[in-house]
Amino acid sequence: MLPADTLGRVLEVDLARRSFQVVDRSDLFASRLGGTGAAIRLLAGEAPPAADPGDIPVVLAVGPLNGLFPLASKSVAMFRSPLTGNLGESHCGGRTAIALRSAGIGALVIRGASREPVYLAVRDSQVHFRSAATLWGMSSSSTAARVMRENEGGAGTRTILRIGPAGERGVSFAAVTAETYRHFGRLGLGAVFGARKLKGIVISGTASQPVAPFAKYRRLYDEIYHAAVDSPVMKKYHDLGTAENVEPLNLLEALPTRNLQSARFEGAAAIGGERMARSYLGRRLACAHCPVACIHIAARREAYENEPYFYKTVMTGYDYELLYACGSMLGLADPDAVLRLLERVEALGVDAMSAGVALAWATEAREKKIVGDKETLFPLAFGQVEPYRQALDALVLQPNEFYRTLARGVTAAAERYGGGDFALAPGGLEMPGYHTGPAALLGFLVGARHSHLDGAGYTIDQKELIERELPPEAIAGKLHEEESWRQVLSSLAVCFFARGIYTPERVCRCLALTGCQVDEEGLKRMGRDILREKIAFKLANGFSWDKLAIPDRFLKTPAPGKGLNEDFLRRGIAAYARLVS
Question: What is the per-residue pLDDT for 205?
């Protein structure tokens, strides 16, 4: 069992009543560790099928290793997604996990909706409801954060979560930004905040965490620390970051380009990790309690209008997914243009991947005359950045029916206008940047979050399916095994980049120092159970294995992994459904 520390304390906030209470859920955290495992129980327990979205809580949760061990730096958000209508789950680094633990809570549960814009100031399990009337409508999410930072205490362990204009206006793929460069990005948490008139949350505190015996803890801490800093994989993340993946995936012909009309981009080297680091890298950042510093920030010099000798330096985060979504997917090979587009994505508070795929679909729909300039308003064309910047603003302002529909995602847009054969949103979530073969696509379709990080199918494609073809049932088994284990990691909650470090054996030793005694098989069983609970929530809220659409574009654009055809994928879907039933 877990010790009687703060992890089992759940802070429940009611926005409508402007009330809060702390409840003891040590039983829940003991049986499900924390993070994802605790969050799905807290969510599903209050979200009956067909419940009104306003009645379904938002859950932020952390795990037993946060604040104690290196790379245990993630927090989990769980909610019902306005994009897919079922499970919404997003993970965020930065300081959020440390702030929640310092505030003396293992989870924050937010219910109801405020009548007027509000932000929450959480300090040591106490909640203050602050008016956000003057923050609502600000053109940049960072401006609102600056105001909250100046008004609230808690510097050091404080986190500031907030939405931008996209969340306020209900864009279904709006993000919640943490600090400056971290996000709860996928599946629309920002729109959920906006619907509840919740502009942001400031979290801080002074709580500490028990660990004993200290000498044993320090030895294990040092073991994990050195495993991280001495790892060649972690060196890659530190030196070039995930942007290093652009050129290798391009050589494999697995880099989605121009709405996946191709999987090879002639401009890959121009936006790859090496070029970005040499020409633009301004600084690296690390999440709290992480020695790797994989966050890469570009420094771009921009002239002031009518001031030829005066410049400002604009700092913009970049990584592989951002360079794919706002680079190759839109045919943009100019790194300066890509960074300017990413700056607008950041200011508006939208998920970069969903936004990039939405704009790519709109561009191809215009090319094919499915829609015209009357709908798009701007001459969207692959390789032209300025129309994309204007279209991003239109996604938020929604001046016509086309942008109101596109703001609900490419699935909704294709249902309204056509073009479903190239609407690239498996399971309703716009695709990530991997066209490696059947394992990746199957993972996008069946994974609980429809994410490449669910079962890492892209790895199966590259390690196994380039040389041979595996039966779809075998691929489904590999995806299920990996996704089940990742439920344990996200319940702890550690960064998936550290999955090679946090082995089952090492996780058991870490947990023992927090007072939790569990063996390796018990951990794996827990992971399978958590995944099953997540799938059950999806099925209860409208998800259907039989209704999963496979757009033709995925099947017609060649991929390196063998076996990419619809019959193969349907067999894999059926096999996966049996494994999680």
Answer: 93
